[in-house]
Each structure stands twice: as structure tokens, then as C-alpha cells.
Design a protein that fits this description.
The chain is mainly alpha-helical and 301 residues long. It has 13 helices and five strands. Strand 3 and strand 4 (150-154) form a beta hairpin. Helix 5 packs across helix 13 (269-299), helix 9 (181-194) packs antiparallel against helix 10 and helix 11 (225-234) runs antiparallel to helix 12 (252-260). The longest helix has 42 residues, at 81-122. The radius of gyration is 24 Å and the shape is flat.
């Protein structure tokens, strides 16, 4: 459990300082979600490790390294009531996280269905656009996930955007649906509700920005980065259903700066490599620290 808490408190500080992750959103997603998975993995493993005599199995092997590692792990194993209580606590946390994730997923799915039914009554589906057009004067575009994923665009957007800008906005929303970005944002939201630790509290905002950046890159590669940026600037920041991913989601100012001036942003290969190294270090931070402390104790006189 100590390793999980260490990752959850240290990772956000390290990850926020690595700007290359916003430049390379795939790396950023791997880093943030990898840190979350590492912390959760240690929580899941804490229960069995508190009760199982893994160090005894290693000690049975004659190799010197196995015996040394057995001594390290043995320092983490404390049989008796304390180990049983730790196992129960770890199991309770895992069950709590699982139930919150299930409730979050079910709630978002029901909301998406309700929004879709309401919007379908108000608008008309345009097969040429591949989107539902709703009568609304402001330029708005977003997508809804669910059993029947849906892109929604306002009549105001059709009047405001040029043909190329419209294509860029729709490509952006298609990238969200194809990448199943709603699942990532739902998981981030559920974890933030289940675990009040810095890493998980930061996840929703960070994951939203990164999936928006990823969709920007996909649309920019197809339609031109300038078209995506100009479309964002012509769209309005608006309130959309809680389960939706809007074209103007995340930090629009940050997204536009990366689209219009990629050379001025940390996009170099060295930055990307550094981002991968930070992601790997954060993921290994908890287990390595706890095992190092245990080894130090095992070697102490």
C-alpha cells in the first residue's frame, strides 16, 4: 500500500513538469494511465502479498540472488493480525474502486442514451455529414458514446464554419469515437471519485486535455493543423452533456498553441524520449522504493 500511495502523490508532480507529454499525447496518456495502473496494481497485490509467504518459496532456491531477494520480500511480510488487517483493507479498497467504476460507467451510458433520444427528437440526421444537425444558433459540435455513437452539430456551426473547417471539426469528433476516448475519460472520472489521492484527482483534467490533443493531431493530419485551429477559434465554449466530448473541450488556448506553433512547443524527439523515461520511472517508482527499503532493512545488523 505504501508504494501505491507513493506513486499517487509523486507521479502528478513529475508528469506535470514534462511538457513533452502534451506535445506527444499518446505518450502522455500512457504515462498518466500507466501511473494509475501501477498504483492500482500495488493496491491489488498488497492483500495477497500480506498473507502469502512468497519469500519462503524464493529462499528454497539455492541461487544467491534468490536468497537475497527472499530476505528483501521477507521484510515486507509480517504474519499475524496486522497482515490480515492489511489484506482486508487492500481488498476493501479494490472492491470500492471496482464498484465506483461500474456505477460511473452505468450512469454515463444511461445519460448518453437519454441525451441521444432527446437530441434525435429535436434534430435531423444528415447522412452526408455523418452527424445529427440540431437547431441552435451558436456553433457547437460534440460527440456522444454508447450503443449508437453519435456526432451532434448545430445549425449555427454549419453557418459559421467554412467547408474545410467543418471537415476538420467532424474529423476531430470521429477521432474521439474511433479512439474510444469516452472510455478513457469515464475511467479517469471514476478513479477520481473512488480514490481521493493527488494522482487520481488530477486524472480527469489531464486525460481530457490529452484526448483532445490526440483528436486534434488526428484531424490535423487529415485536414490541416491550421484548419483545426481556426475552427476551434470560431467555435464557442459551451456547456455540453457530461458524457460528451466537445470540439472545444480541454484548454482551447493550449490546444491552439500546439496546433499553430508546433516548432515553438517541446516536440523534439529528445523531449518525447524524456517523456517515455519519466513515464517508466513513475510506473516503477513505488515498487522500487518499497523493495529498496526492505532490502536495506534485511541487510541491517
Amino acid at each position: 500500500m505504501g508504494g501505491a500511495v507513493l506513486i499517487a502523490t509523486t507521479a502528478p508532480v513529475l508528469l506535470r513538469r514534462c511538457q513533452g507529454m502534451v506535445s506527444a499525447p499518446t505518450v502522455g496518456l500512457v504515462a498518466w494511465l500507466g501511473a494509475a495502473v501501477a498504483a492500482l496494481g500495488m493496491m491489488v497485490a498488497a492483500g495477497p502479498l500480506a498473507l502469502l509467504d512468497a519469500h519462503l518459496w524464493l529462499a528454497a532456491h539455492a541461487k544467491p540472488f534468490s536468497g537475497f531477494l527472499a530476505g528483501c520480500i521477507g521484510m515486507l511480510h509480517r504474519p499475524g493480525a496486522a497482515a490480515f488487517a492489511a489484506s482486508l483493507l487492500a481488498s476493501a479498497i479494490v472492491v470500492h474502486v471496482f464498484l465506483v467504476l461500474v456505477r460511473t460507467r452505468s450512469k454515463r451510458r444511461n445519460q448518453a442514451r437519454a441525451y441521444s433520444r432527446t437530441l434525435e427528437r429535436l434534430g435531423r440526421y444528415d447522412a452526408g455529414l455523418g452527424a445529427l444537425v440540431v437547431p441552435y444558433s451558436k456553433p457547437v459540435c460534440f460527440c456522444l458514446s454508447g450503443d449508437a455513437p453519435l456526432i451532434v452539430i448545430s445549425s449555427g456551426a454549419l453557418r459559421t464554419l467554412t467547408a474545410r473547417q467543418l471537415d476538420a471539426v467532424l474529423s476531430h469528433e470521429r477521432a474521439h469515437l474511433k479512439g474510444r476516448h469516452h472510455t478513457l475519460t469515464a475511467v479517469a472520472q471514476g478513479l477520481s471519485r473512488a480514490l481521493p489521492l493527488p494522482l487520481f484527482r488530477a486524472l480527469p483534467e489531464q486525460i481530457e486535455l490529452l484526448v483532445e490533443r490526440l483528436a486534434d493531431e488526428r484531424a490535423g493530419n487529415r485536414c490541416g493543423r491550421d484548419q483545426v485551429a481556426s475552427a476551434l477559434l470560431r467555435m464557442v465554449e459551451h456547456t455540453v452533456p457530461g458524457t460528451a466530448l466537445a470540439a472545444t473541450g480541454g484548454s482551447v488556448q493550449t490546444r491552439v498553441s500546439y496546433l499553430l506553433d508546433p516548432a515553438g512547443c517541446p516536440r523534439l524527439r529528445l523531449q518525447t524520449l524524456a517523456s517515455w523515461l519519466v513515464a517508466a520511472a513513475v510506473t516503477a517508482l513505488g515498487p522500487a522504493t518499497i523493495l529498496t527499503l526492505a532490502c536495506g532493512l534485511s541487510l541491517a545488523p
